[in-house]
Each structure stands twice: as structure tokens, then as C-alpha cells.
Amino acid sequence: MIEFKNICKTYRVAKRQAGFKNAVKSLFSREYETIQALVDVSFRINDGDIIGYIGPNGAGKSTTVKVMCGILTPDSGICRINGKVPWKERTSHVKDIGVVFGQRSQLWWDVPVIDSFELLRDMYKMDEKRYRRNLDELTRLLDLSELLKTPARNLSLGQRMRCEIAAPLLHEPKVLFLDEPTIGLDAVSKIAVRRFVKKINEEKGTTIVLTTHDMMDIEALTERVLLIGHGKILLDGNLEELKKHTSTDKKITVKYTGRIPALSEGMKLKEARENQMTISLDPHIMPVFAAIAALASQTDLLDVSVTDISTEEVVAALYKEYHI
Ligand SMILES: Nc1ncnc2c1ncn2[C@@H]1O[C@H](COP(=O)(O)OP(=O)(O)OP(=O)(O)O)[C@@H](O)[C@H]1O
Fold first, then answer.
1. What CATH number is attached to the domain comprising 122?
2. Res. 128 pLDDT band, cuts 50 70 90
3. Which mutation among 63, 230, 322 tests ligand 1's pocket best, with the greatest number of atoms within 8 A of CB?
4. 311 in contact with ligand 1, CB cutoff 6 A
5. Does any ligand 1 atom lie closer than 6 A to the CB of residue 104?
6. pTM of the full predicted structure?
7. 296: CA distance to ligand 1 center in Å?
8. 99 pocket-lining for ligand 1 (C-beta < 6 Å)
9. Which residue has a Cα nearest atom 27 of ligand 1?
10. For ligand 1, what atom is nearest to the CA of residue 62?
């Protein structure tokens, strides 16, 4: 269980104007400003859950993860993960957690990946039998056999990411923090990473906190989403509720020949190309079947598709609504 209660965290940073004169001046008198990274943040995450932690750049996501990992001590508030206070019981806490930072490598750059793994085995004081079993399983699931002998610096991003994800799982953590695990990956690698994360959660019951800007990650992996903005939790709910909170509009894309159909009340034009238009429809004003009939009565329809608005659009609308 992850318990995060009324956590506040500020950073104190020195203010400095540009230029040599100001650099010299700052040696003698410094001005500081305070950045409120987390403001009274509270949530609970049950064992075995996967949650998506989303918010725009600078919202406070990494700060939250760093507090949960024990890297940062908050100014106030309570955080307990499996009963331990991360920054006070660091040595025993790190055995319970694993972290993947998509933007930073945790593997030693110049040595073969297997050497990094063996170093982790020693750091976590794992017994050889357990290490071997987990290494064999991860090698099979993530197709690592050809990669283990290669130095991290010679791996492609997708190959390296598979190794980065395996590394914290060698010691079977109860909680896994994934910070943008699919950033920069191609479509096939993204799907492979998502499938693997889901499998680990289902089979090992690992609790997963996923921080991402990729809404396809959220859609594929999480039901519950926490939205943070300006250091405050703005929404905590399931993805479907968030979608309903924002809009129940339907997106209708039509391809047609003949004249451009006029829009009825409840329809808004989102995009128009030659012989194709995408309309956002408020189904409370006009039901979908009536909207299609109204369009068909004015032109020859070649193709119609009806979808809900995408998670990406939902999140963009939420950011706009909360001015974040
Ligand atoms: N070490 C630091 N020193 C000073 N300010 C910091 C530090 N780390 C973060 N901040 C500030 O705290 C706020 C929250 O930053 P944080 O890195 O937690 O955001 P984030 O949501 O993870 O952003 P991103 O999506 O860009 O990674 C930002 O205003 C950031 O500039």
C-alpha cells in the first residue's frame, strides 16, 4: 500500500540575471526564490494496482516519484510505502521498489549489460539461485539473450529499454515506478513494453506507478488516473469517468462525393479535407443516427466512422479546463 498524505515540497533556487556583471554580483549577494513543487498532495494506491500519473511538464510528477523512492525528503506530510517511510528507511525500502527512468539510463554505459545486472545482484545481496531464476525468466520474456553481452552504449534505444526494464525487476520489487518507459520507442517496441508491464502486474501482483505523456500507455495499462497540475492533485478517477467529465461528444468522420453537407445544431466542424470531414457531435442535442441521416440526406456518403473523442483530446481538454 502506498500512502501519500498532505505532502508539500518546495525547492529553493538562486535567482541570477544573465551576464558576467551579474554573475560576479551573485557571488556576494544572492537572491533566492521558492518553487512549490508539491502542494498538499494526498492519495492512496492499493497493492497490485496500476495507476497513471499524468500532468504537463513541470507539474510535479518526478518530484512525487522521487519522494516515493526516498531520494527527496518532503517539507511536510506523511508518506508510507508498505509501512516504511522512504527517506527514513532507505536501505530496506529500496529492496521493495524498482525504478525505470525512460530519459536516463541506469545501466553502466561501457560494460556489457550482464555486468550491470551482476552488480545489481551484489548491491541487492540476492542469492545466486533467485538471481538466476529471475534473470532466465526476464531474458525469455524480454528476449534479452543476444543483448546481455553487449555494452549498453552499443544498444539501440528499444533494445536498451528492454534491459532497463529488466534491471529493477531482477530483485522482484513490490512496487515499480515507471517514468516515461516508452519515450522514443517505435510502435512495435511500445506495444511490447506495454504487454510486458501488464504481464508483470497480473502475474506477480506488482504495484505500478506509471508517469507518462503518452496517452496510449495510459489507455493500454491503467484504469485509475491521477492528474497533477501546479503541484496539486486535480483529479483522481478512472479513465472513463475522466472522459465523461470532459465530454461525451462523438467524433463522426464522413467521406462523401457531391456537395459539402451543411452542419445541423449539435455538430461542430473539427477538420475538413477534400471530400472528407470530421465533426464533433453532442449526442444530447442530436442522436448519432439522426446526425448520419441528416448528412446522408444532403450528399452521397462513401464511408462513415463514429468514435469517442480520444484520450489525448480528453487530457488536452482537462489541461485547458484547469489552466495547467
Ligand atoms: N532540483 C530542482 N531544483 C529546483 N527546482 C526544481 C528541481 N526539480 C524540479 N524543480 C521544479 O519543480 C517543479 C516540478 O518539477 P517536476 O520535475 O516534478 O515536474 P514533472 O511533472 O516531472 O515535469 P516533466 O513532465 O517535465 O518531467 C517545476 O517547476 C520544476 O522546475
1. 3.40.50.300
2. very high
3. 63
4. no
5. no
6. 0.83
7. 51
8. no
9. 57
10. 22
Domain identity same for 278 and 154 = no
- Residue tagged 461542430 (cell numbers): 268
pLDDT in tens, 183-220: 888 888 888 889 989 999 999 999 999 998 888 899 89
Structural domain that includes position 192: 2-8+38-243
Nearest alpha carbon, ligand 1 atom 30: 58
Q: How many Å apart are CA 1 and CA 7, to the nearest integer?
A: 16
Cα torsion angle, 318, 320, 321, 324, sign: positive
Same structural domain, 86 and 231: yes
ipTM of the complex: 0.97
Q: Which of 225, 243, 261 finishes a domain?
A: 243
| Per-residue model confidence as pLDDT tens digits over 66-93 | 999 999 999 999 999 999 999 999 889 9
60 lines ligand 1 (CB under 6 A): yes
154-170 pLDDT, tens per residue? Answer: 999 889 999 999 999 99
The number of C-alpha atoms within 13 Å of 6 and in the hemisphere containing its C-beta is: 3
Alpha carbon distance 183, 20 (integer Å): 38
Q: How many CB atoms lie within 10 A of CB 301?
A: 16
Q: Mean of the pLDDT values across residues 230-236?
A: 91
